[in-house]
Specification:
Radius of gyration: 23 Å
Shape: globular
Oligomer: single chain
Structural class: alpha+beta
Helix content: 25-40%
Order of helices and strands: HHEEEEHHHEEHEEEEEEEHHEHHHHEHH
Strand content: 15-25%
């Protein structure tokens, strides 16, 4: 039996609980489009927090990004919506960005959700029932818990790999959030056995997302069903992944792929500028863009053109470098590793590019 005592202690700690509140809407006042007062304490709203408040108050989503106090009609609708809901209790969570606390989401209490402590019990039940699963890693973050499973069956060895004994196994990532906008999901994953690199697949055939409807009990049953649904695709996923990775080994990366990988990981660099050298060394997009006479960040050409612009970097090596940073870089938080792993999975394990607008050939000698 897996020992979840460390994770339970985090979820039951005062530090965790102070970021998860329940309040009666009678105690909420809207001060500005991006600021509210709750029990006489002011909180700014993140973009997602503003969106979830609008959803709670039945304000159309298309308005919330441009909402401002000069729009008197819409502003009145917000205030009326708050009064109309009256004594309803809501849950809300507080995040932190640049040392500032802000509200990330509002959830009605009557919407079904899986508390993260119950989610840990579900992970244990899966390990007890499915002996072929190994819990490779368990991430316990402020608003999210993720279990990274490895299917303990024979993996596949990658031929012609630059790395000896380069073996892959299929994995399953199961995540749960107590916030409505993040939900509960199950996704197939690809796990390299020679290192700790991992990428998540988000194709429709190998992923499942919960819908916060019905009851708490139904949500748990649906999550187990979704897990089995993704697991049932193992044979199909393995065959498809083998073909995909073998193709990566035999081609060089395009400028689009290099630029997109750099952009995904570079989005987190602002918080850790000392890590720019690590990223630029492993993914030298600036050097490649200069060869084509392009500035950095790469712009001025559409994605089809960039998809045909070759670089000297092997696509599989790019995949390896990008997923290494996503899985291991010290400057990334656990939640950022999760987000970047999903984005890189979409980039490298997604559909083939549409090659219509062709880039010129350049010499890399």
């Amino acid at each position: 039996m897996y020992d979840f005592s460390k994770e339970v202690a985090i979820l039951e700690s005062d530090d965790y609980r102070q970021d998860h509140f329940e309040v009666n809407l009678a105690d909420v006042d809207i001060l500005q489009p991006d600021r509210v007062s709750i029990s006489n304490k002011e909180y700014p709203l993140s973009e997602k927090g503003r969106g979830s408040l609008c959803k709670l108050l039945d304000v159309p989503d298309k308005f919330y990004k441009s909402l401002n106090e000069r729009d008197n009609h819409l502003w009145d609708e917000m205030v009326k919506g708050l009064k109309r809901l009256g004594e309803i209790n809501v849950r809300f969570s507080v995040g932190k960005q640049k040392e500032m606390n802000f509200i990330d989401a509002f959830n009605r209490n009557d919407a079904p959700w899986i508390p993260n402590t119950n989610f840990l019990e579900m992970i244990q039940a899966l390990l007890d029932k499915k002996k072929f699963l190994i819990l490779n890693k368990l991430l316990c973050m402020p608003h999210l818990v993720q279990a990274q499973f490895v299917v303990n069956e024979k993996g596949f060895l990658l031929e012609n790999s630059p790395f000896p004994d380069d073996m892959f196994k299929l994995g399953i990532d199961m995540s749960n959030s107590e916030l409505l906008f993040k939900q509960t999901n199950v996704r197939g994953a690809i796990h390299r056995m020679v290192c700790t690199n991992r990428a998540t697949m988000i194709a429709k055939e190998c992923s499942w997302n919960a819908k916060h409807v019905g009851s708490f009990e139904n949500l748990i049953v649906d999550t187990y069903t979704g897990f089995d649904q993704v697991l049932s695709q193992n044979v199909t996923m393995e065959k498809w992944l083998q073909e995909k990775i073998h193709r990566m080994v035999n081609v060089n990366a395009s400028l689009r792929e290099v630029s997109d990988a750099h952009k995904i990981l570079g989005g987190f660099i602002e918080r850790a500028p000392e890590s720019v050298n690590v990223l630029d060394e492993r993914i030298p997009v600036k050097e490649y863009a200069e060869k084509y006479g392009l500035e950095f960040p790469v712009k001025g050409k559409n994605s089809r053109w960039l998809s045909t612009a070759s670089t000297p970097k092997n696509l599989y090596e790019l995949y390896n470098d990008a997923t290494w940073i996503s899985s291991n870089a010290e400057f990334l938080t656990d939640e950022e590793k999760l987000e970047s792993g999903i984005a890189l999975g979409k980039l490298f394990l997604g559909d083939e590019p549409d090659l219509l607008n062709i880039a010129p050939k350049v010499s890399w000698n």
